[in-house]
Structure formats: structure tokens, C-alpha cells
Amino acid sequence: MFKLFVNTKRQMGHINPEIQGHFSEHLGRCIYEGIYVGEDSEIPNTNGMRNDVVAALKEMKVPVLRWPGGCFADEYHWKDGIGPKESRKKMINTHWGGVVEDNSFGTHEFMELCKQLGCKTYVNGNLGSGTVQEMSEWVEYMTFDGVSPMAKLREENGSKDSWTVDYFGVGNENWGCGGNMTPTHYANEYRRYQTYVRNYHPERPIQKIACGANVDDYNWTDKVMDTCFQAPAWLHGFMDGLSLHYYTHPGGWENKGSATDFDEAMWYQTLNKTLYIEELINHHTAIMDKYDKEHKVGLIVDEWGTWFDVEPGTNPGFLYQQNTMRDALVAGINLNIFNKHCDRVKMANIAQMVNVLQSVILTEGAKMILTPTYHVFKMYNCHQGAELLDSYVETVKIGTEKDQVPNLTESVSLGTDGKIHITMTNLSVNEDYEIEGLLADAEVTEVKGTVLVNEMHAHNTFDAPEVVKAESFDGCKVVDNKLVFTIPACSVLHLEVTVK
Ligand code: AHR
Q: Does ligand 1 have an atom closer than 6 angstroms to the CB of 75?
């Protein structure tokens, strides 16, 4: 029996809905085919956006969407993607498969997509190969309502009203594909570029995000914070967020391994690599704390998720991979960790939303399937905007000699619906665990549950789309005000507890 302790009166911080954010890049079949099929497509769409995909995403709740990249962002020139579609520039997507990018999805289409999804916007600017003027004009085009050349151009292109840009990334991976810069060089460039990311609407300011570290490049975090954090008092600061990118590629960068064909040792190796993100968050936070004790700057994990070998027979530049129960566990573990660090982690964006890496949706022509990761995001959306509660679960180490992981992870919040939400993952391939949950200072009146459970390789296909799906869980009993239940092997569980 493992004990779960919840202090219902001790709130640890606000869980920004954006912690469950998404990322969509001009990469493979993410934007084109996966989301945007164009107005003339036979696939049912609204202003070019697939109706099936948008409906599924709305049901899951997308709080924020990052676009247009990724590496693509630092080669993207936004003026190529506005105006009449037939005259938009056709170009090569150098990063991803060398395919033709016809720019039919641009700024107006992204804003339309976010409107349909009802989500916040996170636009990533081009610092690597674009000019300060270009970035500044993009911000003016998107957000300025008065008399100006860019506002006029936007109106000519069909949008009189400006849009809200909630977050703006000043470059992406500028230590690599975004210009191969040193941290100090980038930090100085960041100070210059961000100056011209103007806030035309003080009541809905743009949150500026600086490019952060790759994995454990702590020197990058230190140098960027040192150069960019301190701003004159009359400015609000140079930065609101600093990003972090960390992917789980189980076999390493050179040999990532198959998405569907793996053994138990690889299962535990994957989960162990995923758990490493907590050490990264702690370490980067400690460095940020040196400069920013009050946690004004958010750690923005704007790329995370599994990265396997591409599905056999698909374009290697498209990064298309299947999604199994192993991905479900990776999602559940990460989202629990982000919740626990919500005082510093203000946004996280899984890579990527449709048809690329750890996607929530896969498409094939007019068909669409929901992945195990989709179901986890839907089960966890109860935490969006909730207050994290102090909680702890007893665990033991399981796995292989090389890869020891805790058998359970959890996080608990007080939701905006006034209920207590417990999300748990069981990392064991084959062992169920009995849990006794103690909720201090609360009287339990009702418990409802949802579980995602199956064997480790289970996944959905276009021929069998519902092999993995969330089901209701009625195995939780209330005994002497304690929650008594068994969490099945290889599962993700959500309990919704009503208390008085
Ligand atoms: O998500 C795929 C790529 O991974 C992104 O374009 C880049 O930022 C990262 O290296």
C-alpha cells in the first residue's frame, strides 16, 4: 500500500493554463494537411482549417499555440505569407524535407486558427536571418490599430482590426539553427531586437520570450540572464520568459529508436530520460534565481516531448512518428512535473500538435486519429488555471539496473470548479499498486475517475482508432474519509474529488 498525502489547505502556486500549450511548425504535415487544407479542399473545413481537427483540439482545450517554428522561424520572412495567396512567394523549406513552402498559411491564417481554437497566440520572430525592422514591422502589423503603414497593409489584406499577440519569441535555438551564436552575442542581440517589439496595447502587453538553453547548457542561462534581466526601472524589464528545449530521445540523438517497437529496458530508459527534465528545471531555476529572486521571468519549456526514428517509409525530414502508451506516460509524467514547478514554469509547449513528433492528433487524408497523448492532455485539462496543492506520494524504485525510476508520479490541484484533481502515473509495465489517499482538512463527498490504460505498445491506427482511449474509473472507494484504489500497471489516472 502506497500513501498519497494531500494538504488541501496549502496552495503552492497558480498553474498557468499555458503549461499545457502546443507548438505547430511549418514542418512535414503539421500545418499543411494536418491543420490547414485550404478553402477548396474536399476535407470539411472552415476558412481552410480542418473541422475534425479543430473540434478535437477544442474539446481537449488548447490554451496557447506557438508558431511558425522552431528552426523554421529563423528563416521565416512574414511578408511572404500575406496578401493574395496566388501571389505569395513559393520557396524551399530548407530545414524540413526541402519541400516547397507556398506560404498559403501565414499570419492571417494563424490568427484565424487561434480564433477557432479559442487559444492564446505565441508568435516566434526571426532573429537569426531577419532584421530588426522586419521584426518590428511584424509586431506593428499584428497589433497596431492606429494610422501606420503596417496597420494600413493589414487592412488592405482584409483585417481592419488588430490581433492580440500574447507571447512573442525573439529567435529560436539561436545557439544552433537560429544563427549558431554564443550566449553573450545572442543576449546583446536580444536586447536590441526586443527594444522594437513595441507594446501598442498596455492593457494586453506582449510577453517577450528570450531564447534559452538547449538541455543542460547552464552557461547559456547564466549569460542571458546576466545580460538581459536587469533593465532600467521605468521599463518593465527586457524579458518575461526564457525558453528551455528538452526532447526525450531514448536511444540518444544518433539512434533514437522506434516509436512502436521497443522492449521493457527501452521503456524504462525512455521514462528515466523524461524524468531528467525535473533536474533541468531545478538547475536552470537556481541560476535564474540568482538574478530574479521574485520569479518575474517564466521558464518557458516551449519544446518538449518524445523524438523517435520516423515511421518507416515516410520522409525523414517530416519527423512523423506513431504514439503509444509510452508517450502517454511521458506526457503524464511531464505535466505532473510542470505542475509541481508552476512557480517558475509558466508555459510549456509539446512538440508538435499534429503529425510531427509527440503529436496529439495524426491524420491521413480525410482520416484523423487521437493519440494516447491526446487523451492525457484531455484528462489533465482540469489543472488549467487551478491552484497547485501540496502533495506527496510514497514510491519505490523500479525498472532495470541501469534505469531506476519511481513507480508513481502525481500532482494535485484545486480546480477552478472547486474540486480537487489528482493525476497519477503508474510507470510499471506490469505491476498494479494499491494507494491510500489522505486528504487533510477536507471531507470527501464524491469521487469520479478516468483512466488511460493498456499494454506498453498499444496505439491507435487509422484501421483501429480506438485501441487506446480514456475510460471511466469507478475503482476508488472512500473508506474513513480516505481514498482507496488500485492504479493499474502502465496507466495514467485522473480522480476528481468533491469535498466539503
Ligand atoms: O521540433 C523540431 C525542431 O526541434 C524545432 O524546429 C527546433 O527548434 C528543435 O531543434
A: no
